[in-house]
Design a protein that fits this description.
Blueprint: E1 10-13, E2 19-22, H1 26-47, E3 55-59, E4 81-83, E5 90-94, H2 108-122, H3 132-149, H4 155-159, H5 178-199, H6 202-213, H7 220-231, H8 235-241
Parallel strand pairs: 2-3, 3-5
Antiparallel strand pairs: 1-2, 4-5
Helix pairs in contact: 1-2, 1-3, 2-3, 3-5, 6-7, 7-8
């Protein structure tokens, strides 16, 4: 697998998370570097850990096939992801997000960066397999925490999300299309925002530590238990009151 660092016209910008980018993407790379530095600082303080060693790779769709990845087949263009197929691990970020990402606001791109950055923080240790909703709730709730800490205008973004897609975060099963996956992530973002508002940021520290301690596959019942316990007093009742859940 060829590294983007060796591709023609790629440069490196050092920072809290170095960014490798194609020459000519100066405006986007500056935005990405700011988001990464903000996210790394807030997540490090929130989770009480040092930021993981990472490189971010900012790539246009025409170079997407050359991005590092676990499998042979490239991921769909425009969909950010975290990969441990290279050393140091990489955040692969598109210069332009896929149209599947909705709503489109000034918060959309930084939220996706912080989402993938949280995966990198979480996977600095081995995490046992969990239901998809819990696996994705952590980075969505953490993205909200970073947005609040960075004073990003998140409320306007949240107000554009349709809150009744016809399923709950626990009800979406199996392989789904892009629209359903986006609705799923948006439900998790809304739930994460509500959890941060109700319980503060501390539950994220407790939840990540709890996931790091688990030694057996986390089933649905245990996942619900973990989240309710780490939310704190009243967590179970609050979860049951949420339509997203």
């Amino acid at each position: 697998m060829q590294s983007p660092v060796t591709l023609p016209d790629y440069e490196r910008l050092d920072g809290a998370v170095p960014v490798v980018y194609k020459r000519g993407a100066a405006e986007r790379v500056a935005e990405v570097l700011r988001s990464l530095e903000t996210g790394a600082g807030i997540l490090s303080a929130l989770l009480d850990v040092e930021p993981p060693e990472l490189t971010a790779m900012l790539m246009p769709s025409e170079d997407w096939d050359a991005a590092p990845r676990e499998g042979e087949r490239a991921y769909p263009p425009g969909l950010p992801y975290f990969t441990r197929s290279v050393r140091p691990p990489a955040l692969v970020l598109p210069t332009t997000l896929s149209p599947a990402f909705r709503p489109h606001t000034q918060a959309t791109y930084p939220l996706t960066v912080w989402h993938e950055l949280t995966h990198a923080f979480l996977l600095r240790k081995e995490v046992i397999r969990t239901p998809a909703w819990l696996q994705e709730f952590v980075p969505q709730a953490a993205s909200v925490a970073v947005a609040r800490g960075a004073n990003l205008p998140l409320d306007g973004h949240l107000s554009k999300i349709a809150h009744e897609p016809g399923f709950t975060i626990r009800g979406l099963k199996g392989h789904v299309g892009a629209d359903e996956q986006m609705a799923f992530q948006n439900l998790l973002l809304v739930l994460g925002a509500a959890a941060v508002e109700e319980f503060g940021y501390g539950f994220l520290y407790r939840l990540v530590r709890a996931l790091w301690r688990e030694s057996e596959v986390v089933d649905e019942e245990r996942a619900e238990e973990l989240l309710a316990e780490t939310l704190g007093p009243g967590g179970q009742e609050w979860l049951m009151s949420r339509l997203e859940f």
